[in-house]
């Protein structure tokens, strides 16, 4: 009998408690979804982020040079990113996005959740950056929505997909700063059926470059009565 129980216990441990066996980034054996070496290489857990645009900073300060000189977003109360958008981390985020593998985001939840709660004040609501319906029809899912709903579910914070993307904007990466702003003008709005917006929100996107997309969304939310907009994304640049 004792033997049978210990055998059952062993099996249960295998079924329920065995963690990811391999690092999602380098493929080496790892108990975490991303191994410690890759965490140091891509996530820089000890380095600060620029409060306005989320860029990873090499020294202790709260703004990157760009935001310090007034060129960054201004309507976001704080932005944080999980990792440096390059190399294997960039490839994984792109794989999730372009190869239709949103389930990978669920494997990353145990890294994402502690980071967000440590970095941002608690919100009333989690909102994804929307995708234009044509692009959504092409890709089949919005990775920001998947990410936001995972965060909402794990932390039991209400989720609402309440922003609309009116214009199918040209990819921001192909444009200069002034063109980016023009490209995004009036691109977002609050869906007409949402009137009661909460005071503090987390805005979720996969990647941030200049922060102008998040900035536009924050502007729309604040115009509709939201007091604080904090943003989280998976990847951002790093100031050298
Ligand atoms: Zn690794
Ligand atoms: Zn910045």
**Topology as a string of helices (H) and strands (E):** HHHEHHEHHEHEEHE
Q: What percentage of residues falls in helices of 4 or more residues?
A: 40-55%
Q: Give average pLDDT, whole number.
A: 88
Strand content: 5-15%
Count of distinct strands: 6
Cα gyration radius (Å): 19 Å
Straight-line N-to-C gap: 63 Å
Give the overall silhouette.
globular
Uncertain spans? none
* Biggest pleated sheet: 4 strands, parallel
Question: Could you walk me through the main structural features you see in this protein, from its secondary elements to its overall organization?
Answer:
The chain has 240 residues and is α/β, with parallel strands linked by helices. The protein is built from 9 helices and 6 strands; from the N terminus they run αααβααβααβαββαβ. The protein has helices at residues 2-17, 36-43, 65-68, 87-98, 103-119, 133-139, 143-155, 177-184, 212-223; strands at residues 78-84, 125-128, 163-165, 188-190, 200-207, 228-236. Helix 9 (212-223) links the parallel strand 5 (200-207) and strand 6. 35% of the residues are buried. The site of one zinc ion has 9 residues, from helix 3.
Jot down its keywords:
single chain; alpha/beta; 4-stranded parallel sheet; 40% helix; binds zinc ion
């Amino acid at each position: 009998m004792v033997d049978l129980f210990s055998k059952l216990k062993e099996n249960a441990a295998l079924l329920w408690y065995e963690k990811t066996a391999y690092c999602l980034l380098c493929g080496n054996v790892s108990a975490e979804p991303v191994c410690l070496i890759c965490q140091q290489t891509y996530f820089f857990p000890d380095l600060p982020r620029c409060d306005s645009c989320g860029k990873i900073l090499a020294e202790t300060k709260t703004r990157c040079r760009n935001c310090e000189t007034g060129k960054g977003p201004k309507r976001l109360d704080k932005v944080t990113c999980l990792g440096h958008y390059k190399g294997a981390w960039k490839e994984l985020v792109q794989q999730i996005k372009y190869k239709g593998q949103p389930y990978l985001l669920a494997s990353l939840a145990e890294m994402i959740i502690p980071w967000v709660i440590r970095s941002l004040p608690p919100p009333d609501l989690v909102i994804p950056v929307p995708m234009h319906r044509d692009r959504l029809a092409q890709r089949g899912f919005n990775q920001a929505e998947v990410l936001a709903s995972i965060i909402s579910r794990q932390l039991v914070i209400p989720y609402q997909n309440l922003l609309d993307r009116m214009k199918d904007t040209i990819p921001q990466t192909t444009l200069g700063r002034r063109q980016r702003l023009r490209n995004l003008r009036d691109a977002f709005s609050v869906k007409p059926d949402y009137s009661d917006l909460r005071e503090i929100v987390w805005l979720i996107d996969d990647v941030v470059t200049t922060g102008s997309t998040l900035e536009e969304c924050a502007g729309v939310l604040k115009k509709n009565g939201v007091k604080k907009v904090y943003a989280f994304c998976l990847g951002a640049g790093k100031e050298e």
